[in-house]
Amino acid sequence: MKASSLRDLRMVNQHIAGATFKQPAEVVEWMVAMQSQVYPMAKWAIGLRLPGAKDADIEEAFNRGEILRTHVLRPTWHFVHPSDIRWLLKLTGPRIQAFNKMYYKRKELDASTFKKSHQLLEKALQGGKHLTRTKLQAVLGKGKVKADGIRLAFLMMQAELDGIICSGKRDGKQFTYALLEERVPIAKSYSKDESLVMLAERYFRSRGPATANDFAWWSGLTVTECREGISALKDKLIADKWNGKLFYSIDTALTKLKPVQRSFLMPDYDEYGIAYKDRSALFDDKIITQKEFYKNRYPHAIVVDGIIAGTWKIKKRSEGRNKFSALELKMFSKLSASKNDILQKASHRFQNFAYHME
């Protein structure tokens, strides 16, 4: 397999090159989970895969609960679909809790503390209430549960992992929490083995070609668990080699599509990069090396023909409703006239999406 073919398949499978979805929730459901700690950029990650979408469309879908935001997979924020949140938490939650264990110990957080915290949160949120972290911090403090700094963050994360709370609609620019039981209809329950196979299938369908180590990195599960999931899918997976490594993908109708968008302004922590432990396919050493790119901590990346080719940033302005007057693009090497025209169209697409970004 050629590197260009690997990149094209990933862009098609991730619905970047040849998007067909109509609603934000469809994108999130296809992607299973999308890293979202930088909320504005996470909304653009959905918009990138949803032609014609505006920032407000994603915001409205989030407020309606069609998209949820919680800690799942690796211990960071992710967008997930309501139909997936319970089985994802059940499968990956124990690994996150194991990761957090030493931090819990340092902050004197034990089972009894979490139990009391959960009870206070449930009581405060009952009846469809959506409350900010600040308001819930006051609730916990009144209930004699110390909740400051990182300790508060861990109390809220544990409540997410235990399926007590999830994201609520935003209160202005602030995030809120709601009870998972009230926000999300009860869904079918799966065994660990069923969930593992389902996650593996959806990962390689939406992000292939990828390796077993890529899957382990993205999911937060062990390499052994991931190989078990891969083994159970052997009749569905297509295996190929690149750079001496074995890559897996699943043949779908998407893989027969010709990529129509191979150049774009990539959001921070976008799944096109973050979903893989080995990101070498995103780089051409003649343009910039992977080591140099990460060493310099460049801002948002520009992708041209599937390869990181520059950086971009928003030029702020203080007056007016829109949050920026223009974009500043910096390329690592000179583009041809045709590629520059394509990049300008990609730039305009982001501007149309984000004109009133919050």
Task: Explain this structure.
The chain has helices at residues 3-13, 24-31, 39-48, 55-63, 82-106, 111-125, 133-142, 149-161, 180-183, 192-207, 212-219, 223-232, 271-274, 290-295, 337-354, and strands at residues 33-35, 68-72, 76-80, 131-132, 165-167, 176-179, 237-242, 245-250, 264-265, 301-304, 307-316, 324-331. It has 358 residues and is an alpha+beta fold. The chain has three domains: 15-183, no CATH class; 192-255, Arc Repressor Mutant, subunit A (Orthogonal Bundle); 264-354, no CATH class. The strands form four sheets. The protein has a four-stranded antiparallel beta sheet with strand order 9-10-11-12, covered by helices on one side. Strands 1-3-2 form a three-stranded antiparallel beta sheet. The chain is globular. 42% of the residues are buried. The mean pLDDT is 92.
Write a brief caption for the model:
The chain is an alpha+beta fold and 358 residues long. The protein has helices at residues 3-13, 24-31, 39-48, 55-63, 82-106, 111-125, 133-142, 149-161, 180-183, 192-207, 212-219, 223-232, 271-274, 290-295, 337-354, and strands at 33-35, 68-72, 76-80, 131-132, 165-167, 176-179, 237-242, 245-250, 264-265, 301-304, 307-316, 324-331.
